[in-house]
UniProtKB/TrEMBL annotation, chains A, B:
The gene is dapE. It comes from the Bacteria. Its EC number is 3.5.1.18. It comes from Streptomyces mirabilis. This is Succinyl-diaminopimelate desuccinylase. The keyword Hydrolase applies. Keywords: Hydrolase, Metal-binding. GO terms for molecular function: succinyl-diaminopimelate desuccinylase activity. The lineage of its organism: Bacteria, Bacillati, Actinomycetota, Actinomycetes, Kitasatosporales. Pfam families: M20_dimer, Peptidase_M20. SUPFAM superfamilies: Bacterial exopeptidase dimerisation domain, Zn-dependent exopeptidases. Transmembrane segments: none annotated. Residues 170-266 form the Peptidase M20 dimerisation domain.
Amino acid sequence: MADTTLDLTLDAAELTARLVDFPSESGNEKPLADAVEAALRALPHLTVDRYGNNVVARTNLGRAERVILAGHIDTVPIAGNVPSRLDEDGVLWGCGTCDMKSGVAVQLRIAATVPAPNRDLTFVFYDNEEVAAHLNGLKHVAEAHPDWLAGDFAILLEPTDGQVEGGCQGTLRVLLKTKGERAHSARAWMGSNAIHAAAPILAKLAAYEPRTPVVDGLRFHEGLNAVRIEGGVATNVIPDACTVVVNFRYAPDRSEAEAEDFVRDFFADCDIDEFIVDDHTGGARPGLTHPAAAAFLAAVGGEARPKFGWTDVARFSALGVPAVNYGPGAPLLAHKVDERVRASEIPEAEERLRAWLTS
Amino acid sequence: MADTTLDLTLDAAELTARLVDFPSESGNEKPLADAVEAALRALPHLTVDRYGNNVVARTNLGRAERVILAGHIDTVPIAGNVPSRLDEDGVLWGCGTCDMKSGVAVQLRIAATVPAPNRDLTFVFYDNEEVAAHLNGLKHVAEAHPDWLAGDFAILLEPTDGQVEGGCQGTLRVLLKTKGERAHSARAWMGSNAIHAAAPILAKLAAYEPRTPVVDGLRFHEGLNAVRIEGGVATNVIPDACTVVVNFRYAPDRSEAEAEDFVRDFFADCDIDEFIVDDHTGGARPGLTHPAAAAFLAAVGGEARPKFGWTDVARFSALGVPAVNYGPGAPLLAHKVDERVRASEIPEAEERLRAWLTS
């Protein structure tokens, strides 16, 4: 790599191309983190902190509100799609164009060009978002330096087609185990059938009616589903065990404890032998009723949509900071070999954020 | 092997020991089949036929009834338990002592010592009973020479503790497949859940009440059970397929077609996408109301029991010959390394059969 500096006077699309040409696959973010840190330290209106390959920069203007702009600097593995290429139709191709170096470019441009925002700003650049959750840099910062992430409202600049996607639903996975007693299937009455014992569980799931509550202005949509079922010993044996794996996706007006209580109550009369919580991450409120968020929504326009899947906004929510996703690029193109972004979307997103932060 | 002849003047227990010392694991029955054939051909009152390593010998006295005595000559693999050993308590140890060279010894003794039975006799010695069904020698004889197996009543000399076990239940295995449509579990309403679609199947199974009909004097006990269930793609995906494997064990008063109809009707309202018959073998009536069988039961004493599991008697039943299991040895000792038989049981079984066939 010839040039390891980042020129923040480039426009957001050019800066995106520069970032794409600066490989930073998960686990190899250090050179890019160094460059981001150096570029930010050159800006006198920002205080810069670093933890591992995570960089946090803040204004300290004593404003009434503080807004966080966050993005991950890693990408999925490069698949012959670096360096970037701008085609004649104005489309920028390459690994990370969409997910999410265009969003990172917007963060850097705002950091460089808005020295006196109407709200205090915190810029978070973190590593290892595309790999196992325990490696996630935002998680590490939240655990080691939660004060660095203090704020009233957070925006994750993930690709959302330039629409606001608010909050996220929680996800709880439980294993429901039923018990029986083995016997030869020719003498079934000598045993008891654990698969038959799972009948009430499936009956309840089939009859489940999802709740669709409005939370901070967005309508969420819950779901309770068997995602796996497994039972059986041999084709001539009455099975002594059956496991139903259930996934509960729940709206962010429930706490984790409330979600777990709901599922336990829901299956309370099903004669379950073991109820095992296998995985659980809480949701995130969109916080769109907060004044900063409402002003943001008015500034960027469009109609906010709820985010049904789990995303890193939940980490902010866990710290008490409502959060949304908002960024250039189509989410469906993320992780594709033909990943791309319309170059004009990037300065557009930048302009909308600037308008909100300088009005 | 020094001596490849069989001396049918030995008593039944000694002959059993001799047969055990004559290894005949499944697939390697030829030397023993040769010895059995040679010993039977030396008996002038019998007509002997051979097909592969299966030997069939018959009297042709023009009696009003014909009775078949059948046994397999193969054993499970020897596990250091050959040659045989008679201990000081009169127990004969070794591979095949129980399953079923003691029964074969009884067949051979009757063949040698009852030249003028009150019913015509057919002796069947067959190979490959302990391995895959398609290798079974009785099946091969039934297909190639069904006339060799003609008769009014058949006794399989499998170990039954010297009790008559009548007939056997049929066994039908079906795969019931439900269909759904995949979706991310965070947006479950975009798909449809194939595991939930299996709820009515399990509900019907859980509510099933078995029939316990009396057939030819024996009370059978049906069973309809899920023996396996499988569904699921990933823990965040609504599953598009689920399979319930159901095993129907049915009394021998149902034909195979009737059994299949019953199961189809039973699940008719369950919205099953595919109903696949995976395996099906019919049952066998015990035929204990037949005069020859009734006389047999009176002669051997005790109370006949129904056989719930599937056995080779079903092959006779398919040819229109009612059949029972009756032989020395404890069925629970079959296939064990410490397989054994009380030596005195063997001539006892022989004497009871002789009494019936000469009264």
